[in-house]
Structure formats: C-alpha cells, structure tokens
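B., you asked whether I could sanity-check this one before it goes into the benchmark set. Here's the sequence:
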Amino acid sequence: MYNVYVEVGSEVKVLCEGVAGGEPVEWTLNGSQVVSSTLLHLNSTRLEDRGIYTCRSLSRGAVIQQVHLKPGYPPSPPDIRCWAPSYPLKALCTWSQMTETYLPTQHIITYRDRDYGVTYPCHIIPKSPDTLCEMKNLQILANRPYIVYITAINALGNATKPMEFDLEENVKPDPPVNVRVVVKRGRQVLEWNHPPSWPEPQHFPLMYIVRYYWGNNQGQGHTKVPVHGAESLPINLDRFTKGRTYHFQVSAHEGLGSGKGSEWSQPVSVIVR
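And here's what the prediction gave me:
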C-alpha cells in the first residue's frame, strides 16, 4: 500500500497494476464499490474521499493493490509570534497554521541577524508543545532586528513567511511566582518572587505593578501600584472596606521599560475583618 496525496478539487487517477488480461476487478472504499474498472478516477477530489482504496479481483477474490488516498491542501504562510521571557539570553517563538491542511505538515524555523549571514535554527524545546521553539545566541542592544523565517512543508507544497524580530521591543517576562500575603511585625505584606525564567535579575532588574480589586471586579474598579527594586509591598488594611474579600495580583516589567509587561500572576486573596 502506498499513499496518494491530492489537493482538494483536483483530479486523481490510479491504475490497478498487475491485473491479468481481461481479469474483472473492482475498486472499493470501506467495503463499498467505487468503480468496476482497473482505473480509479475521481474527477474532483473531496475531503470525504479520504481512505484506503482496494483493487480486488472479482474472479479470484484476491487483493491486487491498495492505496491510501489523502486529500488536503498545500500550506499557507504560517502565523508566528516571538517574545523574550528570558531576556537577554533567549527568546521563544510559537506559530499556527492559518488554514487547515488536513495533511501532516512540518514547520522549520530559522533566524539570523539582518545584517549578517549566520543562520541559526530555532530549537523545539524538549517536553514542550511542538509549536514552541527557542532562539539563542542573541545580541542585546544590537540596534537592528533579527529576521525570523518559518517554512511550512507538506506533501502538496510549501510556504515561507519572514518576520522582523526586535529583541528589546519584544521583551515580555513571565508572571511573578509564589505570590503570598505574610505578617511581619504585625503588618500584612504582599510578597512574590521574580519569574524563574528571568535569568539575571541582579543585572537586568525587574519592576512590578501590583493591582488589587474586590469581589469579581477584575476588569474594573482596581487600583495599580508600581513597585521599583523590591519584591514586596506593605498592605494597609485600614484603607479597605471591612467584610470584603480583596484579590492581589502582580505583573513583571523590564526595569527600563522595554517591551511589554507579563501576564498577571495568580491572585492571592485577603478577607478584611
């Protein structure tokens, strides 16, 4: 058995080879007859025509040939997005196929400095989704973008899409972790830890924004407080309304304001009594 790839809407012809002269044969799909002829002919292939076609001798009952018909589409240029959660050591890229191909499709991602010819592969990260890769060997403050190329390949064709990637403009830390409320010297303090993926906080410090809200007012009525050079914020509960439950979240930002802030951390809640 062998595979026959065909673009949806195209004509396909498969000849049953090895048939003795005059021997009656039929092509079947899932046990149902398609045609009583040595030639399997589909004028305009549909996705519904996918399957294993069997050419069988009507006189001997023997299987002469089998083909796996796989209709689909050639790939379109994929959509790709890159960001740097581990600035300046590496960046990540993720991608998606804009249109479904219905066929196995491979993606190859490479990147290079715009002004120099060295090209590097973007490596798939072990135990990660197969649509996530890692760029290394990046130069900070290069004042020029990288060019990222993504190529989608399947049995019906290929498509390539280039994208400019500026490292500083696409800094985006991961959210802070271990957000908690602790009591120190009789006062409640909101504390957190920098994201583990941020490699050198002592050399590339982060700033943080804390937001708090009560009830389900996450999208409105919240207050944001910037925090520079620290991973904690005292909470003065006397300013809050008694009986309400307040939720606190923290977002990390590159200390000089490059790129974008992280997503908000998981909320930690405090009941004001």
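One thing to flag: The chain has a mean pLDDT of 89. Otherwise nothing jumped out at me.
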